[in-house]
Amino acid sequence: MSESIIQIQHLTKTFGTGESAVHALEDINLDIKQGEIFGIIGLSGAGKSTLVRCMNLLERPTSGSVTVNGRRLAWMEPDGDGETPAFVSEKELRLARREVTMIFQSFNLLMQRTCLKNVCFPMELSGTPAAQAKKRALELLDIVGLRDKADAYPAQLSGGQKQRVAIARALATDPKVLLCDEATSALDPTTTASILGLLKDLNQKLGVTVVVITHQMSVIEEICSQVAILDGGVVAEQGNVEDIFSHPSTDAARRLVYPGGASVEQYPAGTRAVRVAFNGGTAYQPLIASLAIDCGVKVNILGADTRNIDGRAFGTMLLGLPDDPNEAAKALSYIRAQPNVTAEEVEYHA
């Protein structure tokens, strides 16, 4: 069992006071293991970005504790009236932030600096000799596939290339944790896939723990092993990605997991459906066709979020089952017998 590298206990974050106070996070508890790719997902306003910014104290928690790589960054101390938040010193925080670096949706590159100089920047701040910083920066640009862009400026790069430079810069201090705040949201699907592939590669080769903040289910499916689902500032559900995607147990998880955000209002009372998760087996079109041919059962596709990669299906689909119980049972049995497919029946009550 890997050791924990990020521990968050009873974390709360409130903006403002009195009647205008906004409770962005409430009683958050997370335990992220060293070497994991951990996903945090939720709809807009769920508190994802606030949570990730509390991990390196870009936002200071109102209460609770944050420990990263064995170093306490935030904790509660007793006082006369109860407890008050306490934080690590600014000097120690600067050291901690070398171990917990961050990439953003907007890249945050310095436009007046070349790619090489961008990657050198954090090493300059930490006092690394110029020749050593340049050598390391070139190595990092090589790792992210952009050594030939060392002398180019950010304005000359595509979105995906900018994010690769940002990743190289984030790795300059040899961090233990890489925080990714919606890092692929501004990118097209093909570029997103390449960046996710790079993050997975870095995780495997360098052992860096990756925390991915996103609203996209496909990102979680692609690279994460563990996931926490945020809803209204609280953790609604957390655990193994495959388990949660196959058997979501909360409404918040179902809204994210079911294609199209299937909800009770969408279908007539008593509608029976099955959520099918494709884990790299035959593409879904032959499954639907063979179900009709082999069993004589036709199903309705209520929603789908699938992709065909090299003839193999990944993603999820929501299928409406026949009203006839025998026909529905036949369809379920057939689907569950297919390799690399998991299926969960769902009944809606409007």
Question: What does this molecule look like?
Answer:
By secondary structure, the chain is of the alpha/beta class. Helix content is 33%, strand content 33%. A 6-stranded mixed sheet has the order 7-8-9-3-10-11, sandwiched between helices. It has a 5-stranded antiparallel sheet with strand order 2-1-4-5-6, with helices on one face. A 4-stranded antiparallel sheet has the order 13-14-12-15. Strand 5 (71-79) and strand 6 (82-87) form a beta hairpin. Helix 3 runs parallel beside helix 5 (159-170).
Q: What general outline do the C-alpha atoms trace?
A: globular
- Helix fraction bin: 25-40%
What percentage of amino acids are in beta strands? 25-35%
**What is the number of helical segments per DSSP (H or I, 4+ residues)?**
11
Following the backbone from N to C, one meets helices and strands in this order, namely EEEHEEEHEHHHEHEHEEHHEHEEHE
The main pleated sheet reads as:
6 strands, mixed
- State mean pLDDT (0 to 100 scale): 86
